[in-house]
Amino acid sequence: MIETIFIKDVTETSASEGAAADDGATSDIKDEIKLMNEMVWEVISTRHSAELGQLKAKFLEFKYTSGTLCVTAAGNSNESEQQLRRLRSFIEKFNNKEYEEILVEPSDVVSAWCDEIENTLMCECCMYVPGQKKVVTYCNTYEDCLKVKHLLLVKSGRIKASGMNKSRRKNSSKQTLNMKSEEGTKSEKNADVNEKNNETNVEHRLLWGKDKEYLKCFKTNENLKVYICQASILNLDVDCIVSASNQNLSHGGGIAAVIAKAAGVALTREGDEFIKRYGSIPVGNVCTTTAGELPYRYVIHAIGPTWSDYRPHTEELIKRCETDLYNALYNSFVEAERRGAKSVAFPAISSNIFGVPEDLCVYLYSKTIFDYNRKSVGLSNSLSEIHFVDKNVTILQQVCKVFEAVPLSGRIAEYDRSKLTKPIETLEIVKARQNESHIKCTPLNNLKLAEEDTFTWKVDARNVQYYKISETLHVYVYQGNILKLRVDCIVNAANDTLQHGGGVAYAIAKAAGRSLTEEGDKYIKKYGNIPIGQTCVTTAGNLPYHCVIHAAGPRWSDYYPHAIADVKKCADDLYNAVYNSFLQAEKRKQRSIALPAISSAIFGVPEELCVQQYVKATVNYGRQLKEGSHALSEIHFIDIKQDIVKKIQEAFQIIVVEMRQYPHDTKMFAKSRPKVYRKN
Q: Is pTM beyond 0.85 here?
């Protein structure tokens, strides 16, 4: 972080050297110290000008320009190096801090706000720069900077204070729970009555309006209280809440969208800053932001698993899903504990739009609470209350049954994964009917291509099937690796920010190398995020293709609550993503293109809906082709998952038969209404 260059000023002749040595003269030492950013110098030169002046007096030259401090030390070598070490140590103390700028309206009270914040946190952490209309925060960690920022926004009135009225209830609860039997049986009965009345008061505070239909309270032998209630998570008397978030903190649907909307822009802004700084959050981990306008100290964002990411749901994959959900919950409790909270509320993470089966979620919710209770025994800072809150009374009742059936100091039996495990099916090549000669479903070993064809089969291409959509357009559907093909271009199943955090996008970006990622970053910086359903094109980098087309497919969670209109919008966006990929390839005079199963895996769109749009886009593209144009001649659908490949193959077989029966029907896909993908 600090670069030092030593330059000795010596004379050119040895005679002069000898004379200088005889006179006892010493050479000067020059040093260049790199500062992390301009804010480092602003803080040092403003808040520590006196100390800096003392150090400056020891040097012949002391000049700061463009992030570099240039100094020249005189005297003998030992003295000079000692002064330089002191200066470097002083600068490095500030270089190692995290810095943030907060724009503020010029006012005399801003400086007083900074003083109040430093008194509250009992450390030097912020400085008002009136000339630039900003406050500079500098702390040991980025999270501490966010805390200072939150306090400043509260004082400025830009967000509401998140203080909790917890102390009165905690004190009264503590007095009730700590009552000892000093007056015999009568006192014990009075204590029980008081505790029961206290829990009744808690009930009135927990449940709001019509939500007062369901509430259960359990208390473990270690005095951990567990409340299971049907209520709004936005209006609880707890220190903090947990949000069921995704890896990018986009809050597109479900409880995450509800919390983000109620909290206001402050929560979303902090989440965006966190992702920009540290990247996507791994599944099972958590991060913390301000609670914004919500009456909590902060919101913990738990990244729960999405069920579709663990296909084909073998026992090993289900166990991995269990681990990820368990970690998301347990890390939420530990994070709340670490931040000094005594009570936390969490919703039904991963059970709704993330698709994890309810019984598996119930098992993990209960197991995590019991494990935390057992492992936190004897810790003074452990949680005293855990609230499981949801609108779905069914899942609440299931959790209650587990707590009622299991001794409160005991363990929960292992979950039976066999009822969710699906055997991996072996796909067979479907033979074409003899009376439908134009439907060619050819096994790999019998497939012959013309010499001019650009496609070459690799060893890992399995279950290959071929369909002739028109005289000039041929479609291949098979299982394999999209990185091992010989086609002109490939499509990347990208998100709107081109982050390539997982799935096939990660594999393509990793194989292509840095040039693809850098070009994508430049595109986003210049034009902004890619609208869902649209595409952009970058170099293929190290991959053997002319280009990579990045298609921004829809994410299923962004279309909650999945009503007919929502499903139709999702279908249209996916159709546009596929169709626009074809047009991009045609625009660049590409003859062959390969696509993965866009939006079907980590994006969570139901496979049936995906397959319908793949086929629809392909057939409609084939209908508008003109002979002699620079249009595509080959479209390859390839994926590593057998189940999605089989569904695409079956859909193409059906549609080709219909095309033969109704060759002039251009509205073939408009006959049926979209399916509603939600629970009753």
A: no
